[in-house]
Specification:
The chain has 166 residues and is an alpha/beta fold. It has six helices and seven strands. It has a single domain, classed as Rossmann fold (3-Layer(aba) Sandwich), CATH 3.40.50.150. It is 34% helix and 22% strand. The relative contact order is 0.17.
Length: 166
C-alpha cells in the first residue's frame, strides 16, 4: 500500500477513535441517507467505499465488499461485510469487477477526490451505478465527478449532498 499522507493518518486515527460509538451516533442518519439515495435494491458485487462499520450491508440485507482506512471500523464491519483495509486512492481490485460502487460521507476526507474517482471508474463495470454523498460544505465537487461519470440525479441528504451517477 502506498505511503499515507499526514492527512490520511489523521483521518485513520480519528475514525479508529470513534469506531466503538459510531453506530450509536450515526445509525439513523446513515439509514436516512441510504433510503434517499437508493430507491432500488442494488444487485451483484457491490463495493462500499469508506464502509465504516458496515451499516450499508445491514441496510441492503446482503453481504458486500467494504473498504476503509480505519482498522477499528473494519473490526466492527467484519461481521457484516467482506472487508479490506485500504486507501480509496489505490483500490486493490481488478478493473471492472463491481456492479455498483457506493460511498456515503467519505470522499470529503480526501484532499483531492480525483484519484479516488478515477479508481472508482476503473473498478466499476461499464454502465453500472456510482452512488456518492459528501458533506455539503458549499464547495462543489460536481465538476470533479463529471470528469469521470454522468450525473443522473442530485439529492439533498440531510447534511450531505448526494449524486447518482453512471
Amino acid at each position: 500500500m502506498p505511503l499515507r499522507t499526514a492527512r490520511k493518518r489523521r483521518v485513520q486515527t480519528d475514525y479508529d477513535r470513534t469506531a466503538l460509538f459510531y453506530e450509536k451516533r450515526y445509525l439513523s442518519i446513515q439509514w436516512e441517507k441510504y433510503s434517499i439515495m437508493m430507491e432500488n435494491h442494488l444487485k451483484g458485487c457491490i463495493l462500499d467505499l469508506g464502509c465504516g462499520t458496515g451499516l450499508l450491508s445491514e441496510y441492503l440485507h446482503s453481504r458486500i465488499v467494504g473498504i476503509d482506512i480505519s482498522f477499528k471500523m473494519l473490526d466492527q464491519a467484519r461481521t457484516r461485510e467482506r472487508v479490506v483495509q485500504g486507501d480509496m486512492d489505490f483500490l486493490p481490485f481488478r478493473n471492472e469487477v463491481f456492479d455498483a460502487v457506493v460511498s456515503f460521507t467519505s470522499l470529503q476526507n480526501l484532499s483531492d477526490v480525483n484519484p479516488a474517482l478515477k479508481e472508482v471508474r476503473r473498478v466499476l463495470k461499464s454502465g453500472s451505478p456510482f452512488i456518492v454523498t459528501l458533506l455539503n460544505k458549499g464547495s462543489s465537487v460536481e465538476k470533479e465527478i463529471e470528469k469521470y461519470f454522468t450525473i443522473i440525479s442530485i439529492r439533498q441528504c440531510g447534511e450531505d449532498i448526494g449524486f447518482i451517477c453512471w
